[in-house]
Structure formats: structure tokens, C-alpha cells
Amino acid sequence: MTDFQATQPPSQIAPSVAIIIPARYGSSRFPGKPMAPIAGVPMLERVWRIARAVPHVGQVIVATDDQRIVDLVTGFGGDAVMTPESCRNGTERSLAAIDQMHNKPDIILNLQGDAVLTPPWILEALVNAMLANPDLPMATPATRMSAAQVDDLVASKANGQVGGTTVTFDYTGRALYFSKRVIPFIRGTHDTPPVYRHIGLYAYRRATLERLCQLQPGPLETVEQLEQLRALENGIPIQVVTVDYRGRTHWSVDAPDDVTMVEKLIAEEGELVETA
User: What would the pLDDT profile of 189-212 be if each residue is shown by its tens digit?
Assistant: First the structure.
């Protein structure tokens, strides 16, 4: 398949690009999570600084439903907008933020506010994919797993863990299916099984984002609890952009215990971007 990391944006005037960071204060497992300090820097500020380091991005906006987060963002020099509490997910919150912008972007990246270890080059790969092909309605990254990583994921699924989504795609990179199961099913022994772990980050054309928010969940989305399946169920193609973490560890913050692990990884692997 085509690796869009190496693709350069076209030379003509490029569409405008914005990164929206949905960030709710409320969380059943980790209240106030976006404001939690990680190695002395608020989690949300870390994510905002990663977004700001991505080339070709004109605006970075935090979309929230809590004034405390607005105050935090403006305090470190960022832009934030209040969105309705009725937003059911980060996709709807991203669109609510776009609706308030005077200069609406052509391409929107949805970057979760707890994605503190997402390298900026992964976001750049998505931006480049969307700029290189104006017909792409939507794109998302995935990384190939080693045989050992696949074995570990299969074992965790057998123990009842739901974390970790895999994706299959065709020779052009168009997604075939996303699942909480490990796909494809591996029959026998393979040294390099074609298993790709999905990274929960999306780039949309504005019209695609608007359409997705108008659609209702289908049966596949309902049983898998994967929102991206809504696009596939409604015939919206998703380009899978293969990416490489370049030796860094993928980790997100879901619970307070994850903060300690992320701080350990930052100490061992270094900062992704300047934090001051």
C-alpha cells in the first residue's frame, strides 16, 4: 500500500487545516483528567504543544464543556471554546467547535486530550495524506504489530481486556474493517502476521465530519462500540495511513495510574516537543 508519510503536500494553495482537541472535565475514572500534571506540565498543555508542532496546521482549538479547562488553556496561551454538554463524543464536540469558528477549516484533525505520547509526525502523516489527495473524505493512522505484540494482544483479549483495536485494509490503504478482536484471524504460525493496531486519531473533510454527526449508529458500531464503523457502514471510505513510532512507546492516560507510567516513559525516552 502507499505510505503517505513520504508524500509531500501539493504545491498549489493548500486547504486550511485545524486540529481540534476535545477535552471534558468530567470522567468517571479520572475526574479533571485534562488538568492533571504530568512531569510538571498539565496533560492538556502537553497535547496542545504536540498539535502546535505539526506542519501545515493553521489553528489548534480545545473544545470543552467546562470553564476550568477554558481558563487552563488560555493560561498557557492556547485557544478554547465552550461546547454543549449534550455532545455525545469527541466527534460531535469537534463539529460544535468548528461551528463557532469564523474561518472554518477544510480539514479537521480530532486529537484526544489524553494523547500525550502521540508523536507530531503521526499527525503530520495524516495531514499530508489529506493534502495529497483531495478526494479523501477521512483518514486514520495504524501501526504494524510484531509477532510478539500480536501474541500479547491475543492473550490480553483472552483474559477479557477490551483495549486495543485492530484494522484491516485493502491494497490502496482503504479500511475494510475495525475490530476489538484481533483481525485478521491468524491460522497457524506466521513470523510477520499482517496485524495493524489502530491509533484513535482522525482527519476529516469538513463535509464528512458534518455528515458523520448526522448519521445514527449502525449495528456494527453498536456491537463493537467503535464509532469509526459508522463511516464504513454508510459507505464513507477511510484511508489507513501506516505510521512508525520510531522506537517510542504508545500509551494514553485512561486512569490515574497511567500518569506514573507516562512520566516514566518521558523520563526514559525524552520529550516529544518543547514543554516551555
Answer: 777 889 999 999 999 999 999 999
CATH 3.30.530.20 corresponds to the domain 15-118: no
pLDDT of residue 13: 65
Domain ranges for the chain, please list them: 15-118, 120-244
**Residues in the chain where the model's pLDDT stays below 70:** 1-14, 28
Under 8 Å between Cβ of 150 and 193: yes
Give me the half-sphere count of Cα atoms (radius 13 Å) on the Cβ side of residue 34. Answer: 26
The β-bridge partners of 142 are: 198, 242
Contact present, 221 and 180 (Cβ < 8 Å)? no
**From the CB of residue 145, how many other CB atoms can be counted at a distance below 10 Å?**
20
What gap in Å lies between CA 216 and CA 203, rounded to an integer? 20
Under a CB-based contact definition with an 8 Å cutoff, are residues 139 and 231 in contact? no
* CATH T-level assignment (fold) for domain 120-244: Spore Coat Polysaccharide Biosynthesis Protein SpsA; Chain A (3.90.550)
> Which secondary structure element, helix H or strand E, spans residue 177, and what is its range?
strand 175-179
Q: Which helix (H) or strand (E) holds 82?
A: strand 79-82
**Strand (E) or helix (H) holding 203:** strand 202-205
Task: Give the three cell numbers for residue 92.
Answer: 460531535
What's the chain's Rg over C-alpha atoms? Answer: 18
Per CATH, 15-118 and 120-244 having the same topology is answered yes
pLDDT digits (tens, 9 = 90+) for 3-43: 444 444 444 566 899 999 999 887 767 889 999 999 999 99
**Nearest-angstrom CA–CA distance, 61 and 48:** 8
